[in-house]
Amino acid sequence: MDINGLSITPGADLAGVDLSEASLASTDLSKARMAGVALAGSDLTEARLVGADLRYSICHKAVFDKADLHHANLWNIDMRGASAKETIFCKCWLGNSNLVDADFRGADFSGAWITAADLSNSLLGASTLAGVSLARACMKEVDLTGAFAVGADFRSTILNGAIMRAANLSGANLREASLIDADLSLADLVGADLRGAQLDGAVLNGSRHDGTTRWPETFKPLTSGGIESHE
Fold first, then answer.
1. What is the pTM of this model?
2. Helix (H/G/I), strand (E/B), else coil: 77
3. In this structure, how many other beta carbons lie within 10 angstroms of the beta carbon of residue 211?
4. How many Cβ atoms sit within 10 Å of the Cβ of residue 138?
5. What is the pLDDT of residues 48-71, one digit of tens each?
6. Residue 98: beta bridge partners?
């Protein structure tokens, strides 16, 4: 496949190329060298980008729905307003990336590194975040409804106003996280570590926890599965 005289093939060298608004649905760009590529508004639905290098690429409002990007390098990528529903991001590097207002519903981030990224207002409902590193990320007003985040690392992450209803956070590390006004109702917090976390205004109605859940000092949790809000 050629676009503007460029060969769109696995392993292609497309670093710095402008592919904005391009139709790349179902293309195979596995292991392609695409650092700094411009993909703003492009359609990469069901594209295969396994192991591709997309560092510093510009992908705002691009469509990656059902694409496969496992083991891709997405460091410092700009995916503002992008759509990546049911997309595979397993073992990806997404640190320092701009993921504001992106739609990641149903995406699989298992084992990915998303440290210090900005995911404010993004949609992550029903996504898989098992074992993901989100330390120091900004996740204000993010929607994590029903997310599977077992063992995820949220240390020092900002989750103010986040919707985390029915999320599975068992074994998650939430030490020093800011959860001000977050909705954790019906969340599974068994084995979660919330020492030093800020829980002012957090809603924990119906959340599940036990003796393995570690709370901030002096914090008195409601009964597991109970109804109460913390002001």
1. 0.93
2. coil
3. 8
4. 18
5. 999 999 999 999 999 999 999 999
6. 78, 118
